[in-house]
Amino acid sequence: MPYIEVEKDVNLYYEEAGNGQTIIFIHGVWMSSRFFQQQLNFFKKDFHTILLDLRGHGESSKPAHGNTINGYAKDLHNFMTKKDLKDVVLVGWSMGAFVVWEYLKEFGEKNIKGSVIVDEMASDFKWEDYPQGAFDMNALIDIMRAMQTDRVGFLKGFLPLMFKEEMKEKTLSWMLEETTKMSESVAGAVLFDQTVVDYRSFFSSIKTPTLLCFGKEEKLIPVAAGEEIHREITNSRLEIFEDSCHCPFLEETDRFNEVVSTFVKELL
């Protein structure tokens, strides 16, 4: 199992296959690289494909510190530096989108050829001037308390919201396994930080070509969020997945893979 040390005693697990243009897939909060297995098998035919477990997630080290969006972006930068990766395409799903934007904000676009943002808004928090956010303070408190008192019960209710169609029991089972690998305390800390980051003021400065992939079913993230980001990022394209909710790469795998593959090939 391959690991890279990005900080003393902090090792990130990753899978990689294929050659050519490098694409790194970055998962959502509490999730893992396992969610992108169907992408690895497809993209490795034409690209150097990497699935990465962020600090605290999946098979990576689980320190009690550094579990913030900025910390994850720094880990990503260190990972790319140690792997000597150049002109990378970053694919960020849900919280992974925040990691992509934080990377661009912190380290610039010099080493990024393009980005793919999957079903995320500028901020998950309902700020006074941003009522379309996913959570207000009361909802955030309720979720953080649920994570401490009945995490599995909460996740059994939350995970099905990521899909348009009813989840199969075996799908729910392995997703529960992945999303309970970190401690409850770290899970709550990560949730808070990823909820309150806000990239609205940053979008207009992004020049990197950006593909926005949004599911039409709005149980979690509204399509309007993608439309808003599309207006703010000049060099962007919006793709709507009619039969998806939060996970078009799992719900409409073939179309998602083809759309992203076409986008990446256009960058070459």
UniProtKB/TrEMBL annotation:
The keyword Hydrolase applies. InterPro entries: AB_hydrolase_1, AB_hydrolase_fold, AB_hydrolase_sf. Pfam families: Abhydrolase_1 (PF00561). GO terms for molecular function: hydrolase activity. Keywords: Hydrolase. Residues 22-252 form the AB hydrolase-1 domain. This is Alpha/beta fold hydrolase.
